[in-house]
Amino acid sequence: MEPGNRGANVCLVCRRLRRRCSDDCEIGQYFPSNRSDDFHSAVSLFGLTNLRRIMGSVEEHQRQTLANSILLEGKAWRLYPGRGLLGYELELDAQISSNLSEVETAERFLAYFKDQTNPNNERGESSNDAFKRNEVVEEKELKKDEKGKQAIIE
Description:
Structural class: mainly alpha
Order of helices and strands: HHHHHH
Number of helices: 6
Strand content: under 5%
Largest sheet: none
Radius of gyration: 28 Å
Helix content: 55-70%
Distance between the termini: 78 Å
Number of domains: 2
């Protein structure tokens, strides 16, 4: 081994234990060195002894999935220190709700403009009335959904 390359092929587990990494290192192959931040977060969350015990308790074909799960949990706690994966899930839920409301608004505008460009309205009402009627129906659905009853569309 060259002096400038001493720590290049040492896995994260062996580096953390300050020992030489052998070619038959069972746990180190699942924790790549390019995910060292996630690994250090996972070690601070679970502890190195627990990580080694957990990794040793599963079968060989499940270890990569377990290691990815551990690294994801470490990353989540690093990015969302107060809530971990729950914080990530809540952020995604908020983004989904925001995007859904934007889509609903865009669909209402699209229906309004389609109706406005149609000179022969099927219901004999102005396009502005149709847009207002759509809003009233949505308000009725929301009120009935809040009470826990099934919404009835008129």
